[in-house]
Specification:
Layout (H helix, E strand, L loop, with lengths): L14 H9 L8 H16 L9 H33 L6 H30 L7 H9 L10 H26 L3 H28 L4
Length: about 210
C-alpha cells in the first residue's frame, strides 16, 4: 500500500500522487478558508504596485488584509467551481470540491514559493519594491533616484518559481479531473479566454463611451 505523502513537501515532485491522496481524505478541506485568506493577503501584499514614489506600508498592509480576507474566499470558490464546470465540458469528472483541493494543494501551497521570493526582493529593495517600473524610470529621469531596482538573480528565481508552480497546478487540475496534464493545460487556456473576453468587451465599451 502506498505510504502517505506529505502534501507540503512532495507536492513539488509528485503533484498527481499527492492530489489523488488528498482527494480521498476525510475532512479534506479542513482549514482551507484560513489558508485561502492568508494566501490571498500575502499575494495582494507582494503583488501590490503603485505609480508614485510615496509608499505607505501601513496602507498597503490594510488593503492586502481586506482584499485577502474578503475577496480571497470568493475568488477561490468561484474559480474552483468554474474549473470544475469547464473541465466537464472536455471529459473531466472533477466536482467543485475536488478542484478546491487541487487549487489549495496544487496552486496555493506551491505559490508560497513565489511569495517567498517576492518577500526576499522586498527585503532587498525596501519600499521601492512597491513602485512600478514606469514610475521608477520617471523618477530616475528626474534625478530623484539613481537607478531602477533590478536584481537578475531574484528575477531568475521568480521565473523558476512561477514556471514550476504552473506545472504543478496543471498536474493537480488534471488529477482532480482524471485526465492528462496536457488536457488540463487546454482547460486553463479555455478558462483564460472565458475570463478575458468579457473583460476586453467591457473595456472596449467603457472606452467607446469615454469613461476610461
Amino acid at each position: 500500500m502506498e505510504g502517505r505523502l506529505n502534501p507540503w513537501l512532495q507536492i513539488w515532485i509528485q503533484p498527481r500522487e499527492v492530489i489523488n491522496q488528498q482527494l480521498e481524505r476525510e475532512n479534506r478541506e479542513k482549514y482551507f478558508i484560513l489558508m485561502v485568506m492568508v494566501y490571498g493577503t500575502l499575494s495582494v501584499f507582494t503583488g501590490y504596485e503603485q505609480n508614485d514614489m510615496d509608499v505607505n506600508i501601513g496602507r498597503i498592509i490594510l488593503i492586502s488584509i481586506v482584499a485577502g480576507v474578503l475577496l480571497g474566499p470568493l475568488i477561490f470558490y468561484f474559480t474552483s467551481w468554474l474549473t470544475a464546470v469547464v473541465g466537464r465540458w472536455i471529459g473531466g469528472r472533477g466536482e467543485p470540491g475536488d478542484l478546491r483541493v487541487a487549487t489549495v494543494r496544487g496552486a496555493y501551497i506551491p505559490g508560497l514559493a513565489i511569495i517567498a521570493v517576492n518577500l526576499i526582493q522586498l527585503a532587498v529593495e525596501g519600499k521601492i519594491y512597491f513602485v512600478s517600473s514606469y514610475a521608477q524610470f520617471e523618477a530616475m529621469q528626474l534625478g530623484l533616484i539613481e537607478g531602477t531596482s533590478e536584481y537578475p538573480l531574484i528575477s531568475i528565481l521568480t521565473y523558476i518559481a512561477v514556471v514550476w508552480t504552473f506545472v504543478i497546478n496543471v498536474n493537480a487540475v488534471g488529477a482532480a479531473h482524471g485526465f492528462s496534464a496536457w488536457k488540463a493545460l487546454l482547460l486553463v487556456v479555455i478558462i483564460g479566454f472565458i475570463i478575458a473576453i468579457p473583460l476586453v468587451l467591457v473595456t472596449m465599451l467603457l472606452v467607446s463611451f469615454g469613461l476610461i
